[in-house]
Specification:
The protein is of the alpha/beta class and about 375 residues long. Helix content is about 35%, strand content about 20%.
């Protein structure tokens, strides 16, 4: 199967309207909301491979649009240019412009009108950390609520805005196992900040729908693929929603009868509420599809345990798999998890391979050059 798009394939500019078939909560009783979505691809012509992503084009929540218009002092009926089309400001805010995320450039442009001493001070080079702290948890609407501007026209207002970007999600299914379907695993963002309830634009857009058609397109990822040789072993590290592509990998290997061994490291807060696809994974382990399944729960005991801790516990076996040519995959949080896993991997190579720190680093770099150490992190 090829996943190279042709000129008629759905794209960001010409998405496919895919019926949302299933919207299921995976984390009943958890402090986090993670959902499983299934979309119908029938008649779309879309073919994907495990490791690819799905681009979703959301619309902004009607309450967010109404609140923003009210804060700016506009009705929404004003006509504006959005891309190459003329439409009402309300429609433009709903489907074309990003209305929530606040950037330094927006603050800078806003302050050319507001002339706020406070914002001016934050924008000084020396106050980079203070600016980041100011932006944390704030949205565009907060600028207008905290620094009210009267008489702003629609054209000036949209000059602060950027086009809304699609959201890319790692695909959580194998097309071989689920013909005409694509599945996603999505952490839904909801929080309170500065006296207002906030939510992620795309994650909440999906969470609040079922049965509707969702504009989407495929985004191939040639740098995160299963090996062509199904005999090779693979090691997958994917805590939280990082499980998504590995669910696809496991389904693909099972469906195609690949003989290579499979090892998954998964983790989250609590096994009772956050074991994403737990029944599936346990069944794969019982049936021998997963040769190894190591689970790390950070809040089920006094000491926090993470996937990198489980790697260290199994360092001798992990090193043996690497010696056998295993491909090592990591998916999930780039800021902490992926760095911690990387450090654990280098430590395992040094300790089990009896190498110096410098030689272990070179060995891991060799894995990367040989495409045996692959990451899908965000």
């Amino acid at each position: 199967m090829s996943n190279l798009p042709n000129e008629n394939s759905p794209s960001k500019a010409n998405p496919f309207s895919s019926p949302l078939l299933v919207n299921r909560l995976l984390t009943e009783g958890s402090g986090k909301e993670t959902r499983h979505f299934e979309f119908c691809l029938k008649d779309s012509g879309m073919e994907y491979l495990p490791g690819d992503s799905l681009g979703v084009l959301p619309t902004n929540c009607s309450e967010v649009v109404a609140d923003l218009l009210n804060a700016v002092g506009l009705t929404g009926e004003e006509q504006v240019e959005a891309g190459d089309r003329s439409m009402s400001l309300s429609d433009a805010l709903s489907g074309y412009f990003a209305c929530t995320v606040l950037s330094k450039m927006q603050i800078k442009k806003f302050n050319q009108i507001a002339q706020s001493d406070q914002l001016g001070e934050l924008l000084e080079v020396a106050n980079k950390e203070a600016l980041m702290e100011f932006m944390w948890g704030r949205e565009l609407i907060d600028l207008f609520l905290e620094f009210p501007q009267s008489g702003m026209d629609a054209e000036t207002f949209i000059s602060f805005l950027r086009p809304m970007a699609p959201r890319l999600y790692s695909i959580a299914s194998s097309l071989s196992a689920h013909p005409d379907e694509v599945h996603l695993t999505v952490a839904v963002v909801r929080y309170e900040g500065y006296g207002r309830k906030r939510k992620g634009v795309c994650s909440s857009y999906l969470a609040e729908r079922v049965g509707e058609s969702i504009p989407c397109y495929l985004h191939p990822n040639k740098n995160f693929k299963l090996p062509e040789d199904g005999n090779l072993p693979i090691i997958m590290v994917g805590p939280g929603t990082g499980i998504a592509p590995f669910r696809a990998f496991i389904e693909e290997r099972k469906t195609n009868g690949a003989s290579g061994r499979n090892w998954l490291f998964f983790g989250d807060r609590s096994q009772s509420t956050d074991y994403l696809y737990g029944e599936e994974l346990d069944a794969y382990k019982r049936d021998g599809v997963l040769n190894e399944l190591d689970l790390a729960w950070s809040r089920d005991q006094e000491e926090k345990i993470y996937v990198q801790n489980k790697m260290m516990e199994k360092k001798a076996e992990l090193w043996s798999w690497l010696q056998d040519g295993a491909i090592f995959y990591v998916c999930g949080d780039a800021h902490r998890m992926a760095k911690d896993v990387d450090q654990a991997l280098k430590r395992i190579v040094a300790e089990e391979g009896s190498m110096s720190e410098e030689d272990a680093l070179a060995w891991v770099k060799g894995m990367q050059r040989e495409r045996r150490y692959l990451k899908d992190v965000y």
